[in-house]
Every structure is written in structure tokens, then in C-alpha cells.
Amino acid sequence: MNAITRLPFPGELDEGADDRFHIPEREGQRRRYRSIWISDIHLGTRGCNAAMLIDFLDNVDSDTIYLVGDIIDGWRLKKRFYWPASHNDVVWRLMKRAKRGTRVVYIPGNHDEMFRQFTGMSFGGVEIRRKAIHTTADGRKLLVLHGDEFDTIMLAHRWLAFVGDAAYTTLMRLNVVVNAVRQRMGLPYWSLSKMAKHKVKNAVSFISRFEEVVAHEAGARGVDGVVCGHIHNAEMREIAGIEYYNDGDWVEGCTALVEHGDGRMEVLHWADEIAARERDERAMQARMAA
Ligand SMILES: [Mn+2]
Predict the structure, then answer these.
(1) Residues 54-110: pLDDT tens digits?
(2) Whole-angstrom Cα distance, residue 102 to residue 10?
(3) Could you identify which of 30, 70, 174, 214 might form a hypothetical disulfide with 40, taking C-beta atoms 3.0 to 4.6 angstroms apart as the criterion?
(4) Which residues surround ligand 1, an ion (CB under 5 A)?
(5) How do residues 204-231 score in pLDDT, each as one tens digit?
(6) Where are the beta strands (DSSP E) in 87-169?
(7) Does a structural domain hold residue 9?
(8) What separation in Å is there between the alpha carbon of 150 and the centre of ligand 1?
(9) Residue 222 belongs to a domain with what CATH number?
(10) How far is the CA of 111 from the centre of ligand 1 (A)?
(11) How many angstroms is it from 71 CA to the middle of ligand 1?
């Protein structure tokens, strides 16, 4: 996982043997995947990284896209209306995809639970589900759900306390400011809260416990694996014989889970992908100039 995928340099392909980098399936300029999972976009909040998500959507295609919850943050919108044009752009891009034949499955989470009342219905080609079973190209069955279903099993609700924490909110705001400054300085995106999260012992133990609970519950339902979101922590690992996948978020991590044509799964860290692309573009320009 975390493999940085990028376009090969001119000449690299001709040499054939060079497989240091894996070259993704591409369709024109867009990468093509069998399936894509994204969640925790939190449209309607300042923390939402719509620009990064738009770049992602403009560079990838898939047969199926799963929107795994917390797409729109109804909780925050109710308190304070915030809806910049870029958030509309995200919604339109997703609707356009459905219209053009991509299967779009929307599984509302806890922040967009107001859409759960429409379970079983379809709007503009977007299917609304409570959960889904995805069959991979190589025949594995994956249970797809947001993940807040396990908050009650998680007894202490420690993550919700952490996510709702004023310190976390401040950190996210700081993240926006720091990255605006970094962008102006020509530096790549950098996740402040991601770093902080890995340093906070409680958060680390919460995350691993959540992952174990979800994998255990999926195993009890007879599937090979589970795909969820909710805790804003992208991951793919095996827990007690069950494949655990988390597609992360588009607030700070800016990650997506993808399935390749052969059923291989990968977590894409989009900030890294953009950095790699820009590096390649610079290298290409340097070669052209030489
Ligand atoms: Mn959630």
C-alpha cells in the first residue's frame, strides 16, 4: 500500500524491465479503477478539502463509486450555513458520473443521517443504501458501511469525544491555514492533525480497537472483509482472517480506497499523488528544455 503511482518518464516504458514504479491503468489522462470508495468529505464545513477532492475526481474513473458516509455535514450546516461554490462542484461531479453510467452507491453516515430515510431510493442514478455487499473482481465479498454502527459497541464513544473535541476543531482550522500558507510558498499539502493523531496515545488505541471491533463484526456476518470510513484513518490490513479497509477522509488525510481491475486493493493518498504528478511535470519540462 501507499505505493506512489505516477506516469512513467519518457523512455522508461521502452526500457521495459524497469518496474520500480507500478503504472496504473489509464484511460486517456484519467486512471481507471474497477471500484472507488470515498467517505467523510464533510461538505458544508470549512475543514472539507474540496479542491483536493475535485482534483481526484477529475483524474480517476471507475465502474462503481461508493460514497461511504459523512459526505455532507448536516450537523454543522444546521448550526451554521456554509456552502462555497467548490462544494457544489463536488456534488455536480458526482451527479454527472451517475448520469454517465458510473454506478454510484451512497451510504449515508452519522453526519448525513437525514438521507438515511431515503434508503432503497434512487436520485439521479444515485442509489441510497444503508449498507452494501461488494464482490471484488476475484470473488471476495466485502461488507460496505459507514462505521458509526459500531459506536455503541465501542462503549466509551472515545472517538466521538475526540472528533467533537474543541482541540480537534482548532487543529483542523489550523490545518487549513497552515496549508494555505504552504500552498502560497509552493510547498505540498501536509496533514497537521494526521501527525497529531498518531502522536496521541488515546487516539491510537481507539483506532486499533475500532478496527478490531469492525473486523470482528464483519467476520460474524460471514463476509471476507469490510470497507468503512468514520474514524478518518485510512488503512488496509488483515485482522483475524478478515480484510479491514478504511477509505479515510477528505478533511485532512485526503485518501481514497480503490480496487484495480484484478481485485487488488490500494489506498491512494491524493496529496502524495499530486506531489508526484507535479514532480513528473517539472521533470518533463526539464527534459523538453534540455
Ligand atoms: Mn462518521
Answers:
(1) 999 999 999 999 999 999 999 888 888 999 999 999 999 999 999 999 999 999 999
(2) 32
(3) 70
(4) 70, 109-110, 148, 230
(5) 777 888 899 999 999 999 999 999 999 9
(6) 103-106, 122-123, 126-128, 132-135, 141-144
(7) no
(8) 11
(9) 3.60.21.10
(10) 6
(11) 9
